[in-house]
Automatic annotation (TrEMBL):
Alphabetical keyword list: Signal
Positions of the Glyoxal oxidase N-terminal domain: 80-460
Organism: Pycnoporus cinnabarinus (Cinnabar-red polypore)
Keyword Signal: yes
InterPro entries, alphabetized: Gal_Oxase/kelch_b-propeller, Gal_Oxidase_central_sf, Glyoxal_oxidase_N, GO-like_E_set, Ig-like_fold, Ig_E-set
UniProt cross-references to Gene3D superfamilies, sorted A to Z: Galactose oxidase/kelch, beta-propeller, Immunoglobulins
Matches recorded under SUPFAM superfamilies: E set domains (SSF81296), Galactose oxidase, central domain (SSF50965)
CDD domains in the cross-refs: E_set_GO_C
Disordered as annotated region, ranges: 595-620
UniProt feature, compositional bias: Low complexity: 601-612
Identification of the protein by name: Copper radical oxidase
Pfam assignment, any one: GO-like_E_set
Length: 683
């Protein structure tokens, strides 16, 4: 009878290539969340994760996938303890999964075709984290062969499983994964055998790309060589320039991975942010207003110098930093001080919300990530004094007033080392995990192994949500715009709310060790037409024609009206393939217009706009400009013919401008006709 390892080998050989096929999404119009009586600003315990959530990610709108390290979890799969699970958001229940190898401190991210990749982890272990005698089979009780790489195509039918693929080219414990502009993934750093921090004898200061390209093996990295010992899980972001920002210990560099060249920039200031200092990090929203310029926020961590990363003193009581700084690396190489946290925090997650704000939660006020047997440890935890109160950061607020706790309440569960969080499509945040122990421990300790799942409900949760019609299931890098219809109710009874409405694309990322690898939010450029009956239409550009702004792969699409997001729908960004992404210029948007049915007036904005401006031109003139814009955009679809007779576009444009401004009703009729014709052609 074949061994479990042999069965897995057959399965991975048969299915690895199929897992790299494109993923397609069937689009549905978003409705309302499952409830409108949630405890706003509070945490609610909703279920059991089955395994402790050391790593997690949203794979489908209804499924969160959870990965633990190999340990004695009570939940079983294939006659051994489970260390992976699938959690249903709607049912608030899960099923165990068999991820086979020891995923302890692995990294993850999503490929451009929608397949999730999990890389690295620890050697095979037995009870208590002790090294197993056999690294090939893992031995009892876990049968966890030495780590490698696994793929998952998420599903909603409960039939998908993790599939092992080829072994890694080199051992990596604590690696970071960043999706690139072609949908492949760069795997950065790690160590060979583990420990609290890294050292020169086991450092793996290299990066490589999956799927491999041109048989190009691991490439040496200067920053990972020179930033010991706190260089595990380096902080990385793909930048609009196509370079990758890498922040490790106190050092920072810009990696041109195509040229295999690093350019060091200014050192981090005030605190170490990488593991095990574990500050919270997030890229601020990319918007038309900021020119899609990337700014990264770093908060918390601690100020330990390289010679202090030892375990011969009481780290658990060392105060975490309150410092927050930001960096805009494509513009300036200098870190800028931002508003500090209300208290020091290590292991705090920064979660992007669809309204553009950032939720900070989890972590501890003293200590660092990690655990061990030292007598000063809290049980085994290297941190103490859990921070139970969340806090919200508003990047649009004036400096000095960006952090707020208005309306927020604390959790009742300490979320320490090995906890995480992820945004859900309904705009709530799932929180789970915490296990600062070598194995499963629940009795007699301050910070037990946690399986409880919480939902946190932001301020907008119980509000009536927009229910936009016409959302696509795929976004391309440039091309024709699409139209999104909003009813009067969607606009809160005031058509002028359409002026501030926005459409945002949000990737929730792979949550582990305070990071959400790949988390990113981008606002699409848009203009609007507000109708006299109180309804409206958003004219929305495709993604900017630069895949480095937002790498290809699945993401959530939200429409936000007056600070209230719709329920997010899953879309594929890009071609759905791991390839150089097709790009083209975005078609110019129609002018922004609001029709006032009460006084036969209208206001108009710029055709290039972002949905946030109104320039107040005359009523007929505004509609006339919009008509002209529709003519320009409809021309290719109409085939430049009316009734079989070729017509020059300039002729029609001239007719629009020749119409007298008093002919408002004619303008309005023609405008509505072209608007509806455009919608029919686009759909």
């Amino acid at each position: 009878m074949p061994t479990r390892r042999q069965r897995q080998s057959v399965r991975r050989t048969a299915t690895a290539l199929s897992l790299l096929a494109a993923t397609a999404y069937a689009q549905q119009n978003p409705g309302q969340p499952p409830r409108n009586d949630a405890p706003i600003g509070q945490f609610e315990i909703v279920g059991n994760s089955l395994v402790s959530a050391q790593q997690m990610f949203l794979g489908t709108p209804d499924k969160v996938y959870i990965i633990d390290k190999t340990e004695a979890n009570p939940a079983k799969v294939n006659n051994h303890p489970a260390w992976a699970a699938e959690f249903s958001v709607s049912k608030k229940a899960g099923r165990t999964m068999d991820i086979v190898t020891n995923t302890f401190c692995a990294g993850g991210n999503v490929l451009g075709n929608g397949t999730w990749l999990n890389v690295g982890g620890n050697m095979a272990v037995t009870t208590g984290g002790a090294t197993a005698d056999s690294q090939v089979t893992g031995g009892q009780p876990y049968e966890d062969p030495d780590g490698g790489q696994s793929l998952l195509n998420p599903c909603d039918d409960g039939n998908c499983e993790w599939t092992l693929i080829q072994q890694m080219s080199t051992r990596r414990w604590y690696p970071t994964l960043e999706t690139l502009e072609d949908g492949s993934i760069i795997i950065i750093g790690g160590c060979k055998w583990g420990g609290f921090v890294n050292d020169a004898n086991q450092n793996n200061p290299t990066w490589e790309i999956f799927p491999p390209k041109d048989n190009d093996g691991p490439v040496e990295s200067d920053i990972l060589t020179n930033s010991l010992p706190a260089n595990l899980y380096p902080l990385t972001w793909l930048l609009p320039s196509g370079k990758i920002l890498i922040q490790s210990n106190w050092k920072t560099t810009l990696l041109d991975y195509k040229a295999k060249k690093e350019t060091p920039i200014n050192d981090m200031i005030e605190a170490v942010r990488v593991y095990p200092a574990s500050g919270g990090t997030a890229m601020l929203p990319l918007t038309p207003a900021n020119g899609y310029t990337a700014t990264i926020l770093f908060c918390g961590g601690n100020d330990l110098q390289p010679d202090r990363w030892t375990t011969d003193w009481d780290i658990a009581q060392y105060k975490a930093s309150t410092s927050c700084v930001n960096l805009t690396p494509d513009v300036s190489t200098t870190y800028v001080k931002d508003d500090p946290l209300p208290e020091g925090r290590s292991m705090g997650n920064l979660i992007m919300l669809p309204n553009g704000k950032i939720l900070c939660l989890n972590g501890a006020e003293t200590g660092t990530a990690g655990y061990g047997p030292q007598d000063w440890a809290v049980g085994e935890s290297y941190a103490d004094n859990a921070v139970l109160m969340p806090v919200v950061y508003d990047p649009s607020a004036p400096q000095g007033s960006r952090w707020s706790r208005d309306g927020l309440s604390p959790s009742t569960i300490a979320r320490m080392y090995h906890s995480g969080a992820t945004l859900l499509p309904d705009g709530s945040v799932l929180v789970s995990g915490s296990n600062p122990h070598a194995d499963y421990v629940v009795d007699g300790v301050k910070f037990p192994t946690e399986y409880r799942v919480e939902y946190f409900y932001p301020s907008y949760y119980n509000e009536r949500r927009p229910q936009p019609q016409g959302l696509p299931d795929q976004l391309k890098y440039g091309g024709p715009y699409f139209n999104v219809t909003l009813t009067k109710d969607d606009l809160g009874g005031d058509v002028n709310n359409i002026k501030e409405a926005s459409v945002v694309v949000l990737r929730t990322g792979f949550s582990t060790h305070t990071m959400n690898m790949g988390q990113r939010m981008l606002q699409l450029n848009s203009t609007y037409t507000g109708n006299a009956d109180g309804s409206g239409m958003l004219h929305v550009s495709q993604m900017p024609p630069n895949p480095s702004l937002f790498a290809p792969g699945p993401a959530l699409l939200f429409v936000v009206v007056n600070g209230v997001p719709s329920v997010g729908v899953q879309v594929m960004v890009g071609s759905g393939q791991i390839e150089e992404q097709p790009t083209t210029q975005n078609v110019e948007l129609p002018a922004a217009t609001v029709i006032d049915g009460g006084n036969n007036g209208a206001s108009s904005g710029s055709a290039a706009g972002n949905g946030n401006e109104s320039h107040g031109t005359s009523a007929a003139g505004g509609v006339r400009d919009s008509l002209n814009a529709y003519t320009v955009h409809l021309w290719p679809a109409l085939g430049q013919r009316v009734g079989g007779i070729p017509i020059e576009r300039a002729d029609i444009s001239d007719h629009w401008h020749a119409l007298d401004n008093t002919d408002f009703e004619l303008h309005r009729t023609l405008h509505d006709f072209l608007l509806r014709l455009h919608y029919l052609i686009r759909t």
